[in-house]
Write a structure and sequence with these properties.
- There is one protein chain.
- The chain is mostly helical.
- It is built from twelve helices and no strands.
- Helix 1 crosses helix 10, helix 4 crosses helix 5 and helix 8 packs antiparallel against helix 10.
- 36% of the residues are buried.
């Protein structure tokens, strides 16, 4: 995952040091953008692999998909009536659906990197601590939603409780008890899967920006090897 944002972190550090201006001048926009694209491509693939494996969502507390807070009382009631296994089944199904769907993210993330312009690259380099993550969110969220939704729907259809979720949540949504965007199970899981993907990317980006030297990969060393000469 270090390859994903190592370039961004090191570049930001180097660009802020005037004494290196001569070395940086030797790097063209084309070279800089190409290096960034390579790093983002490799890193995005690692991020997907982390989530797409079994329990990638279910056993990761940062991205685990749970029932909406507005349905927690219902979940508690079910467990009190000895129906906890059904609630567990639904939670497991939601996370398994996300793990299956996120596999589809790789080609779309790679395509977003390929279509990155020089201006996009500059924006990432000069942006905030999650600039690369926001670029991915802007350029892939709509396409990923379209890819994820049918996969999630196929997975949740296997659980009869999913229909009960939609029935209850739909009624709750009409009365303002449940957020309208959470009133459909498939839409809810799809959005949570996307949130989990971007969260993992953002956390890694933030960590590497804080320690650019320690996070530098061999790719970064190669790209910026000429700067110190």
């Amino acid at each position: 995952m270090n390859a994903l944002f190592g370039f961004v972190a090191v570049a930001l550090t180097l660009f802020s040091v005037p004494v290196l201006a001569a070395g940086l001048a030797d790097l063209s926009n084309k070279d800089t953008t190409a290096a960034l694209k390579e790093a983002l491509t490799k890193g995005s693939q690692v991020a997907v692999e982390m989530l797409a494996k079994q329990d990638g969502f279910l056993r990761n507390e940062r991205v685990k998909i749970r029932l909406p807070e507005s349905l927690h009382k219902v979940e508690g009631l079910m467990r009190g009536l000895g129906m906890g296994k059904y609630a567990d089944e639904l939670v497991t199904t939601m996370n398994r659906a996300a793990e299956t769907a996120v596999v589809e993210a790789t080609p779309l993330l790679v395509n977003a990197v390929k279509n990155m312009s020089v201006q996009d690259a500059k924006g990432i380099l000069a942006g905030g601590e999650d600039a690369a993550t926001q670029y991915f969110r802007r350029s892939t969220s709509a396409a990923l939603t379209a890819k994820f939704l049918p996969i999630v729907k196929k997975a949740t259809q296997k659980v009869k409780l999913a229909d009960k979720y939609n029935e209850f949540a739909g009624k709750g949504g009409r009365f303002g008890l449940v957020d309208q965007k959470d009133a459909d199970l498939n839409n809810y899981v799809t959005q949570k899967a996307l949130d989990g993907l971007y969260l993992m990317i953002a956390e890694e980006e933030k960590k590497i920006r804080k320690d650019p030297v320690g996070s530098a990969s061999s790719l970064i060393s190669k790209v910026f090897g000429a700067i110190g000469k």
